[in-house]
Design goal:
This protein has six helices and no strands. By secondary structure, it is mainly α. The chain has one domain (3-140).
Length: 150
Amino acid sequence: MNGWILTATIVLALGVGATVWGVATGPLRRRVVAQNLSSAVACPGLLLLSQGFARPAYVDLALLLALLGPVGTLVFARLLADDLAEDPPHAQGVTLAVAAYGAVVVLILCAVTGPGRAMVKLMVVGALLIGGNLVASRALSGGYAGSRRG
């Protein structure tokens, strides 16, 4: 076991534990934030595992998860808009921490892989991961001020 796999294991264990606890307990607002957290933690974990096992195919899985994870959160935000309007989630701290974690993982992996096609793919995964997480979290908290809910 190398450092990449150990780091991925620790982060995934803590992230999945927090996600399962958030989904299984508490009010609706905590459950939807935990659902958003699951994809935001699993994607960098897959990137770390890709480096640890030397399997570039895991980066493709991370790309797919970075693309579809926030979409699932947006679907939940739309379907549960009325319930979330009464008690919107406020998870700015968690959102920023997970976005920073994703950025650090992507930057470290970009430095390790060096310039090339793999680095571009990592940067795309990072942009989708961070941007999607921020947009999905903003949608869960009620959208932008001054916009109307459709």
